[in-house]
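Supplementary Note 3. Input sequence used for the single-chain structure prediction.
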Amino acid sequence: MPTTNVYFDNFSNSGEQNLVEDLIIESIKIYGHEVFYMPRSIIAESTVFGEDLLSKFDEAFAVEMYIKNVEGFEGEGDFLSKFNIEVRDQITFTVSQRRWSEEISEEFTHQDADSNYIGRPAEGDILYMPLNGKIFEVKFVEHESVFYQMGSLQTYDLRCELFEYSNEEISTGIAAIDTIEDALSSNALNFQTLDEAGNIFVLEDSSSLVQEGYRLEDTDKTADNEFFGSSSNIDFIDFSENNPFSEGANW
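The predicted structure, written as discrete structure tokens, is reproduced below.
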């Protein structure tokens, strides 16, 4: 029966494993960047499509990460689609597993199908990079990027893409991050009329009063709501018709 040499134990020496991990952590602290990791809290989830209908980010944890892209962002970059110009910058961050667990406790991580905390970074969470002031979304977490160096795993590789903001609530307490929602959110509920105590004025039909100064065009420069709303002689699809997709016949 073949066996490895019993006099050489290269993969079970915890002292050497800890030494390698200490060196990795020190290297990331020297050459890395401080990044804010924000776990996604799902408020409403679609059980049909398996995606979040409404989510928020109310925690931000500072942890040092190393950027593996040395020649710039990866991905398709500035991409001209049939709808608009899309920025598809991609970046890969490396973070120490030990430093991750020290800065972010288990209860702030996602849960698996058995309601157990996974205790690691998860796809769908976002990162704020102060160096360029951009937010990236985690698309994939590779936990075996350095394959069992000295018999253990020391790092996570977070493969990220530039985050497409879609009115998520961001309230981390860090001004540089929270202003992103203030500048980009087109949610009319952010402009509800409040009383002196901060309570929302609610009408009899449970709807709320929106301040007159609210304009979708202030946050979405491509919106044409006011143009269509103020023009009466424009030939466009009117969804009040019985069959707006036909050529005039009702069938």
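The longest strand covers residues 85-96. The CA atoms of residues 216 and 222 lie 9 Å apart.
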